[in-house]
């Protein structure tokens, strides 16, 4: 290898470095300045500059298009899931009220209150099950737990949970202990279903935001 | 009105979840908010010399329920606006007789709250 070869090699290395480090042109109109700014080096190396640049623009465009499609798909999945939650009666209008309270001053409000509900409701249901399994069942305490659960489920729009609590209280008012007892399993099941579906919803929200999209607002 | 121009609200509810939702609604109006878990602590707020423009009062609470707390406040001559907010529809007459100004059924929505605040001229 002679000195000229070495110099050419160095030029090629410099050009490659520049192409990697320079901000890639994001549109066709920005290509010409990019080439012009680097033309001396590129032409010195006899490098065909147009095609790699065009290719990088195409790749960038494709990546952005793919990203947009990902966000759209996530948003559609989110909307479909939320619609199904309302259609199945798992959520009611009160949940929409909570979503409308979320803004730039309270960005994670819905997640926060629903997480609080998961904690509180989980604890209350465990207490209920534990109390029913005791020798001497304290029905007054159980009624207090169910009352609390009914209130909090109503506050966040957890309709099915609220409804089972309402049924329980109707049995309690009639002193129908068997009826009360029969509500506990459905209550637990509704809670488990609610929790898993809302967790899926929040996961989708995180994915949408991470992909640069916004959470679709739905009116019900 | 309480001494400063800022509307002061006392939330009285044993459910911290419900209090969280009410606080978020009220923050929209930049009100000053205090929260307590039962009627007894609500009374203590006034005994301690605190002033409020509005009380959001739940019914079923440990230590002292909302009806008793309302009756006690009126007996003390406290003129604060009291809004009873409960899921117990049958308690409306009891609450109003005890001295509540308004009665609302849970769950409280933002528009219900706004209507109440407007009716008391707290949104001027």
From TrEMBL, chain A:
InterPro entries for this protein: AHP1-5/YPD1 (IPR045871), HPT_dom_sf (IPR036641), Sig_transdc_His_kin_Hpt_dom (IPR008207)
Biological process annotations from GO: cytokinin-activated signaling pathway; phosphorelay signal transduction system; positive regulation of cytokinin-activated signaling pathway
Predominant subcellular localization, coarse grouping: cytoplasm
PROSITE patterns: HPT (PS50894)
A GO molecular-function annotation: protein histidine kinase binding
Pfam families: Hpt (PF01627)
The keyword Phosphoprotein belongs to this UniProt entry's keyword annotation: yes
Residues bearing the modification Phosphohistidine: 147
Subcellular location(s) of the protein: Cytoplasm, Cytosol; Nucleus
Domain HPt: start-end pairs: 106-201
This protein's name: Histidine-containing phosphotransfer protein
Native organism: Rhynchospora pubera
From TrEMBL, chain B:
Coiled-coil portions: none
Pfam families, A to Z: Response_reg (PF00072)
Modified residues (4-aspartylphosphate): 58
Domain Response regulatory: 8-121
Keyword match Metal-binding: no
Species of the source: Rhynchospora pubera
The keyword Transmembrane helix is assigned to this record: no
Superkingdom field: Eukaryota
GO terms classed as biological process: phosphorelay signal transduction system
Gene3D superfamilies in alphabetical order: 3.40.50.2300
Protein's name in the database: Response regulator 24
Keywords associated with the record: Phosphoprotein
